[in-house]
Fold this protein.
Amino acid sequence: MLTTLERAEAADHAAAQAMDRYVIVKSTIYTSGERDPRKPPEHPDSKGKLHLMHHDPRLPRMPDKPTLFDFFKLRFGPSIHMLQSARLAQKNGCSEKIILACLIHDISTGGFVRADHGYWAAQMLEPYVDEEVTFAVRYHQVLRFYPDEAYGYKYPDSYIRLFGPDYKPEPYLDRAHEHARKHKYYEAARLLTVNDLYSFDPNVQVELEEFTDIVGRHFKQPKEGLGFDDSPTAHMWRTINWPTRYL
Ligand SMILES: [Fe+2]
Ligand SMILES: [Fe+2]
């Protein structure tokens, strides 16, 4: 029987061996800005090596049939902000759909792409949740820039700090705001912004498992696992699972 330490060492060794065997390159989107994407990519020396087409040995391995919670635990960054937002929505008596929306609203900033994170996250989630949830997730990004006194929502102080006092949302955001205002799910998106905590409290512990039942009732977890269910957005989940495949 191997001890835990021996098992960890064996896993390290296997990962090191895999690293020797493969060339691992970054997608353009990961480096665009740091480098000019028009320049030829700087590929590492690939002599005698294969190009990675599966699991990245530097990452914890995902189960064969990954669930939403597996992504939270193995691929998304710290989720305390989303957990505390979901807890706040619960405390404020929001519906289960709004609580779920709060729990997953920033999965793109923490696990995929930051720019237009509401749109990306909504798209990832579309096959698995009610359209009210994806509307809230998509438009929370937009509505955060626009006050609504009826809900006690002010322009965030944190945005003045982050973007400067002169920042003006892009015209596409103005248009999206107008659209959302007239939409039947406006309130869902607005409630998400109201419960979207600007700063989290490091002393408040919230566990993902507190939301197991809500997720079970409102998130259609595919039996094949996220990424392997052939849904229109399965490829997005696969890319998060295996982010450095060559193709
Ligand atoms: Fe957000
Ligand atoms: Fe947020």
